[in-house]
Amino acid sequence: MTTAKDLFIIAMDPRSDRSVGQGDLSLALAGAELIDLLGTGAVTVAEDRIVPGEPSAPDDRLLGEAAAALSREEPYELVEDWLWRRGRDLSTAYRTALEGAGELTRKRGGLLPFGPERVEPADTPASRRAADRWEENEPVLAALASAVGIDGERSDDERSDDASGLGDEAVTTVVAVVHDAVMELEAVRQRRTIENTAFANIWRGP
């Protein structure tokens, strides 16, 4: 399993303290892919730009697609631009892949058989490993989860430890850019809400 798949599983856990927006999650998944590519040596980060190494073919299909999507032309792509480009509809791609692999299951909410359907992790070795990684506050997973608002019951000190525990400068850069991108997306949502409210008031009249 990759960091992105572990993050998706954690985000779908019904015990999570909040619902994660698909846009936020997609940005974080793109960041998680980049961090895994950093770990394999497929890329490095220099001055916020993604510098590709030798072409690689990771065993994981989605991570392989990420590696193939890297820009190999100078001045190379900014991490922020990668998140927005690679992150487009990425949460849907991960949901499809994990459902197809049996890592997610569909369940009905509420007491009635026709209640709203939800997706949550199946009881598999992979989902248990993701849960263990989360329970152990593994710094990378915890920091990415925090970026999309999944903090569980951890204290402020533990959240601070997430950032300080990342160690690698390139990984720290990617996580920071993920945080900024999620905040930018939220600002766009708020701006649209204000604009829509103002537009509705115009039509409603005095």
Provide a quick synopsis of the model:
By secondary structure, this protein is mainly alpha-helical. It has one domain (3-204). Helix content is 59%, strand content 10%.
Question: How is the topology of this model organized?
Answer:
Blueprint: H1 3-12, H2 22-40, E1 43-46, E2 49-52, H3 61-68, E3 77-78, H4 79-86, H5 90-100, E4 104-108, E5 117-121, H6 125-135, H7 139-147, H8 156-164, H9 169-204
Antiparallel strand pairs: 1-2, 2-3, 4-5
Please give a structural write-up:
The protein is mostly helical. It has one domain. The chain is 59% helix and 10% strand. The protein contains nine helices and five strands. It has a three-stranded antiparallel β-sheet. A two-stranded antiparallel sheet has the order 4-5. Helix 7 packs parallel to helix 9 (169-204). The protein starts with a helix and ends with a helix.
Biggest sheet: strands side by side, in what order? 1-2-3
Strand fraction equals: 5-15%
Can you count the beta strands? 5
User: Mean pLDDT across all residues, rounded?
Assistant: 86
Notable characteristics:
globular; 206 residues; mainly alpha
